[in-house]
Design goal:
By secondary structure, the chain is α+β, with helices and mostly antiparallel strands. Among the domains are: 39-179, Nucleotidyltransferase, domain 5, CATH 3.30.420.10; 214-248, no CATH class. 31% of the residues lie in helices and 15% in strands. The protein has helices spanning 2-10, 13-18, 74-88, 100-103, 105-113, 130-145, 151-164, 174-179, 187-190, 194-209, and strands at 39-48, 51-58, 64-69, 93-96, 117-120, 225-228, 233-237, 243-247, 284-285, 300-301. The strands form three sheets. The protein has a five-stranded mixed beta sheet with strand order 3-2-1-4-5, sandwiched between helices. It is elongated and about 140 Å long. The termini are far apart. Residues 246-323 are annotated as: Disordered. InterPro entries: Integrase_cat-core, Retrovirus_Pol_polyprotein, RNaseH-like_sf, RNaseH_sf.
Length: 323
């Protein structure tokens, strides 16, 4: 009985139509592309300030591009996409919703001619194209914060700030991640130029090193020098004919002997014996071959003369004069 009642209520058409939505399915995120501008997500924002805005975001770098149009038609969409493709090239795939500008045959022919895969989200399920939906929300919030200037000026200011701000997902600025360089901004004026910082650091290192350094110049034509390859590097030739590259600190001049005043070879100088006398031994004079002295004469011993010790002149003070 209970089972039959449950089956009857479950099969009720009005009950099924008015029941709550089922629980959401587990999230299935998009695969992150490895290359910039390989997959882009597009959508329209507006009407805003009487205009429509084509919002395009790169799935890899989160780079945001926005173009203003008067109406969201396929022709206007193709025209703005051509402008973006002229700058960044053709993407591999485009993700959009099922809106009229993207579902028309004109748009389908455009993407097919350019070899682009068109992926459309599920109807009435905007979260499928969640990256574009979030980009539209970010653009609307940013435009509200910029209150001065025309629509184009406000849009340019917002995009400039957004593209140079590190993204919460990648922790890198979208412009830097897409272009491979960080565009210059007013923040760069706050900090010194990195080139000047490096040059100043190198100059300080040079001044500290050169305090004890000595300049030595080597020129082509020296004893073994062949070529100067840099400010302090040279190519030299060895005695065996080999050539090697050496730093200035590893090279010394080689001086030849003077040809005019040639010094005698050390092997030609005869050895002269030098007598060794100990300190406590007295000097003894033994004359030989003298006509005035016979062989039986006694040796004469030189007296030892003591060297006087230096002393200072002492002058006692006057207060000791009475004693």
């Amino acid at each position: 009985m209970d089972a039959e009642i449950e089956q009857t209520v479950r099969a009720c058409h009005k009950c099924q139509v008015n029941r709550h939505a089922p629980p959401e399915a587990p999230m299935h995120p998009w695969e992150w592309p490895s290359n910039p501008w390989s997959r882009i997500h597009i959508d329209y924002a507006g009407p805003l300030y009487g205009k429509m805005f084509l919002v395009c975001v790169d799935a890899h770098s989160k780079y945001l591009d926005v173009h203003v149009v008067n109406s969201a038609t396929s022709a206007n969409t193709i025209e703005k996409l051509r402008t973006m493709f002229a700058i960044h090239g053709l993407p591999e795939s485009i993700v959009s919703d099922n809106g009229t500008p993207f579902a028309s045959q004109e748009f389908q022919d455009f993407v097919q001619r350019n070899g682009i895969k068109h992926i459309r989200s599920s109807p009435y399920q905007p979260s499928t194209n969640g990256l574009a939906e979030r980009a539209v929300q970010t653009f609307k919030e940013g435009m509200k914060k910029v209150t001065e200037g025309s629509i184009e000026t406000r849009m340019a200011k917002f995009l400039f700030t957004y593209r140079l701000t590190p993204h919460a997902t990648t922790a890198i600025a979208p412009a830097e991640m897409l272009m491979g360089r960080r565009p210059r901004s007013l923040l760069d004026l706050t900090y010194p130029n990195i080139n000047s910082r490096v040059q100043q650091k190198q100059q300080r290192q040079k001044q500290s090193h050169d305090k004890t350094a000595q300049v030595r110049n080597f020129n082509v034509g020296d004893r073994t020098l062949i070529k100067r390859t840099g400010p302090v590097s040279f190519v030299i030739e060895l005695n065996d004919g080999r050539t090697v590259k050496r730093h200035q600190n590893q090279i010394r001049h080689k001086y030849d002997q003077y040809s005019d005043n040639k010094l005698p070879d050390i092997s030609e100088i005869p050895d002269i014996p030098i007598p060794v006398v100990s300190d406590n031994q007295a000097d003894v004079e033994t004359p030989s071959g003298s006509s005035d002295t016979s062989d039986n004469s006694k040796s004469v011993v030189k007296p030892t003369v003591e060297t006087p010790r230096l002393t200072r002149t002492r002058k006692p003070p006057n207060r000791y004069g009475d004693f």
